[in-house]
Every structure is written in C-alpha cells, then in structure tokens.
Amino acid sequence: MQGVKKIVLAYSGGLDTSVMSKWIKETYGCEVVAFTADIGQGAELSGLEQKALSTGCSSIFVEDLKDEFVRDYVFYAVKAKAIYEGHYLLGTSVARPVIAKKQIEIAQKVGADAVAHGATGKGNDQVRFELTYYSLKPDIKVIAPWRSWPFKSRTDLINYAQQHQIPVTATASKPYSMDANLMHISYEGGILEDPWATPPEDIFVLTKAVENAPNTPTVLTLSFERGVPVAINGEAMSPVALLTKLNEVAGEHGIGRVDVVENRFVGMKSRGVYETPGVTVLHQAHRALETLTLDREVMRLRDSLSVKVAEMIYNGFWFAPEFQAIQSMINGMMENVTGDVKLKLFKGGVTTLGRRSSKSLYSEQLATFEADQVYNQADAEGFIKLNALRLRMRPQQH
Predict the structure, then answer these.
(1) Pairing label, strands 114-116, 6-10
(2) What is the spatial distance between Cα 35 and Cα 397, in angstroms, rounded to a whole number?
C-alpha cells in the first residue's frame, strides 16, 4: 500500500501484533502508533508500553473501555438473547466493534491515514474489524499483514520473534491462541484444531472443573432494571463490578465452559473453547425475568430476532443500519423487564429458584387450579373449535 505515512495498529502485545509492529515499520517505512483497548484482559496489559516502543511503535494509547464494553455491548447481547448457533455467547465478537470504534477515533486524533489489525485471513475478526472501520470512516486505508506478509504460521512468527529478541508468551509446545476480556476467554488453534482432542485442563483460567467445584451451592439474587442487571443480593453495582463479581462466583462453580465447532463467516468450520461464567448466569436470569414481564407475542418477536442479531454480531455488522434498527426495537421491548431473580449456582449448573417483579404480567388469580371467578372455562370450547376449523377442513382434500 503506497503513500501510507502513519498507521494505528490494534495492539495486544501478543505474538501476532508484537511481530506485526516491527514488520509494518520495516515494510512500509512509516510511523506506527499502537492502540490497546482495555476491556478487562487484566495482566496482559502489564508492560505494554515498553514492549510496543521496543518493537518499533512511536507511541501507544491504552484506552479503558471496560465500562462502555459491558454497558453498551455485553448487556445488549444479553437483552437480545444473542447466542450464535445455540452455544457461543459471542465474547470475542461483541468486543470487536468497541475496539475498532475507538481505533478509528485514535486514528483521527493522531492524523493517521491507515489502521492495521492482527486478525488472520482465515478468521472472522478481519471482517468484524474492517466492517466497523469502513462504517465509521469510509476512506480509511486498512492494512492486514496476515493477508500479505511472508509468514505462513504462528510457528514462523515464534521463530521471527526469537530472531529479533521480541518477548512473547506463545511457544511451539503451547501454540493455541487466547483472547480474554471481561465477558469471556476464548481458546482456539494449535492443539485445539483437532475437534476430537479434549482441551487440556490447564488452559482454563476463569472456571474450575466441575469435579473440583464446591460441594455447597451458592444462592444469589440478581436485580434488573429495564433489562439491565444492576445489583447482586440487593447491592447496587456498576456494570463492570457486577460482571466481575458474577465471573468470580460462577467460575468457582464451574459454570460457563463450552466447546463448539462453529461456522465462520468466511465459510469454514472452526473449533472454539470458551469460558463465559458471568454472562451464562445473566442469560438464565434475564430469561427467567422475561417470562414474568414480557408479553407473549413480544417475547416471540424478540426470540425470532435473536438468531439474526447473533449472526450480525458474529459476522461484524454491529454498525449496519439493520442492526441499529433492531437494537432500538429490542431496547424498547426491555421497558418492563424490571425485577429480581433468585438463582442457585452449583456444579456447573444455574437453576432458577424464583422471580418477582412490580411489572409482572403473571396473575395467580388466573393461573390457579382452585376455584376462581375470573376465567370461564366453558369459553375454551369455542376457542378450540375456531382453531380446529382449518384442521377439520383438511380431510376434504383427500
């Protein structure tokens, strides 16, 4: 790519982007500005500034996006019941638009004419990053080294890093890729590429193995306002504090591990192993409260949109007009999803013990099997016959 003077690189300090910062500067002869989004990856942020500067970056921006990430992205995915292909709670997918959005803001701030990312040419992240870039700044130039550099594998990158004294944590004996944030940790590649291979127990960070989880359950109450979790056991918490606490408690009970083979947007199948303890609990609690507070047809409409929303998030269309239209609709549906849900966490499972709401549509007077003066059971006969009309006509066709 000719004429590039300054590039903002989405920089994690991991194997790929550590090599990338040096390779981009050597290849394009331009200034490289590193950008790191703090979305809860914790210790991975340690020493990033020194590392970025030592591998060719002129400066680094480390932006704290944790609150925005949880409030505007993670909690929306819960409200939308966005679960990809029945299992994946979208922890990586949900994080990409908030990262790419801030990267474009940094590029505009420093006057960069290009942005770069560390996603491979086989994966979904390249699509997620670039669709966001182009949605927010249509004229931006995009550099994706994995689609153009001479390295063919992460083993090549490890060798390059060793040759150039670039410190990295990946090794040839442990080459799988990790992606961590406040919502989850994902593991893929390397030793996990064989879908028959059992994930080694020592890879897991957030969750205990079920057999090592406590023998005593934890019972807690989650409170929601307009679909958003706001308190645990009556204690009001910020979005970040609440999710952090849920991750700790649920992880201790071995909740939130999934191992899936998913269909990537680019066309291939891939195997991913995920830990999403806190959000697993949130999905269960949110659904339980909705059963009390959402109108039947509103819930069915939202559920019909959930698969579409999950696909759009997975495929990178967070800032597409159709996504934003659906987002507004689902947020509107959450107006009355307010109340409390009592849950039991135990040995990898989440059990709903009770739910209550000042916005409840549930009527004990209507639902009771005891005598009531509200519901005339004889009315059901006409209702059934009207619904049976087309079924009774069908034999005439034979």
Answers:
(1) parallel
(2) 68
pLDDT at 164: 82
Which pTM was predicted?
0.93
CATH number at residue 155: 3.40.50.620
Catalytic residues, which ones? Answer: 16, 96, 125, 177
Based on the fold, state whether residues 111 and 125 are members of the same structural domain. yes
Question: What is the C-alpha separation between 91 and 265, in angstroms, rounded?
Answer: 16
Give Cα separations from 197 to 176, 191, 193, 318 (angstroms): 13, 8, 8, 33
The encoded tokens of residue 197 equal 């291979």
Same domain, 369 and 337: no
**Could you give the number of structural domains in the chain?**
3
280 and 349 together in one domain: yes
Identify whether 86 is part of a domain: no
Q: Is the dihedral of CA 74, 35, 268, 172 positive or negative?
A: negative
Question: pLDDT for 140-186, tens place per residue?
Answer: 999 999 999 999 887 888 888 888 888 776 555 555 778 899 999 99
Closest Cα partner for 343 from 230, 211, 232? 232
Q: Is 163 exposed, middle or buried (0-12, 13-18, 19+ CB in 10 A)?
A: exposed
Domain that includes residue 122, residue range: 6-66+92-175
Torsional class of 111: left (φ above 0), alpha (ψ -120 to 50), beta (otherwise): left
Averaged over 116-122, what is the pLDDT? 92
Instruction: Give the span between the Cα atoms of 207 and 272, in whole angstroms.
Output: 16
Please calculate the CA angle 256-257-260 and round it to the nearest 5 degrees. 125
